[in-house]
Design goal:
The protein is of the alpha/beta class and 415 residues long. It contains 15 helices and 16 strands. 39% of the residues lie in helices and 17% in strands.
Amino acid sequence: MLTKPPITFDVVARDGDARAGILTTRRGIIETPVFMPVGTVGTVKATRFEALEELDARIILGNTYHLWLRPGVDVIRAGGGLHKFIGWPRALLTDSGGFQVWSLGALRKISEEGTEFRSQIDGSLRFLSPEVSMEVQAALGSDIVMVFDECAPGKATYDQARVSLGLTARWAKRSRQKFDELQLEGSDMGSIGTTHPEDTRLGSPHCPVAAPAIPALSEELTGAQALFGIVQGAAHRDLRRESLERTVEIGFDGYAIGGLSVGEEKPVMWEVIDEIVPLMPPNRPRYLMGVGTPEDLIEAVAQGVDMFDCVLPTRNGRTGQAFTSRGKLNVKNAQWTEDQRPLDESCLCSVCRRHSRAYLRHLHQTGEMLGGILLTHHNLAFFLDTMRGVRQSIRSGDFPEFRRNFIERLTASGE
C-alpha cells in the first residue's frame, strides 16, 4: 500500500476566488494557474522541445487515443516510455481518449464495456475501455493520467446527459481500480525513484547536449503516476453537482471539468463553471479541459481554476493568427506588408525581439513553414507569459486590476 502521494498541491496565495499554488510532480514543480501546451501525438505542433524549455513550459499534454493508434504502445514501451521516446524530461499529462472517441460521432459504438470504433488510420476495428486506457497510459508513463470518460455534447438533453453521467461515474471507478492494479504491478513506464534516472538519449556522445536540469524527486512523493477524475453532466448544473459528488467519492489526486466548449453557448459554460468550481475539493488541483482563449483563462482563474489546456496557440499560429496584448492579429492582412513593428510591442519573446510583422506576413504568404513555427512560438510565449503575470498578480494581491487591464487591452483598437 502506497503511503505517500504521487503529487502534492499547496495553495500559497488567494485573491478573491483566484488562487496561486505549487503543484509538485515526480518530474518537477509546476506553479499554478498553469497553461499546458497540447502535444497530442508526442509533439507540440511546429515547436521544438528546446523552444518549450526556453519558454519554461513545465508540463505538456499527450493523447492516449492518438498515441495508442500510432505509433502504438509497443513502440513507445520499447523507447522507454513517452518521456524518453520524445525527449521531454519534464512533466506530462495524458488525456484518456474519451473526448477523441466521442468526436468520432456515428463512427463509434458505445456500450457499458467501452467504445468500439474503426481506426481512421487503417480502418481496423479497435476497442477502448477504462481498462485499456489505463494500460496505455501506464505504458506511456505520463505523470498525470486522466480517467476514461464519456463526453456528452454541450447541448445534450437532460436524459442524455444523465445516462452519460452514470456511465462516466462507473467508468471512473473502473479506471481507478485498474490504475491501482497497474501501479502495484509496476507497469508505469515513467516511474522514478528518489532521483531522476539519467536519460542516455540526452547528453550521450551522439547527442552532446546536457538534459535540462529538473529537480530531484521530493521525498514526499511516491514517484508513481497521479490519476485525475473528470466531472461531466453537459449544461445541466444539478447533474454536474451529482457527477462531482460521485467522482469525489471515488477519490482522485485532482479533478477536471470536462465536456465544456463542445457546442454549448459561452454563457452556459460560465454558469457551469460558476456552479461547480467552488464545490471542488479545495486541496486538489482543478483542471478545466480544452479551454480556451486568453480571456477565458483569465475569467476561469477568477473562478478558482488552476490548470488549462487548449490547441488555440498552436493551431492559430499555423494558420497565420497571432495572439497579442491588443487582441488577435492576422498576418495575412495586407496592412502588415511593410509594417516593421513586432507582432506585440509588449512581448519579449525571441520572435518579437527579432522579426517584424512584414517578415512574418511574407513567410506566411509564401507558404514557408518557418512562418507557422515563429507564430506558434510567439503564441505559446503569450499564453505562458499571461499565466506568469496572473500568478504574480494573485501573489501580490493585484489580480482584479491585472484582470481588468488585461481585458481592456485585448478589446482596445489601434493595431
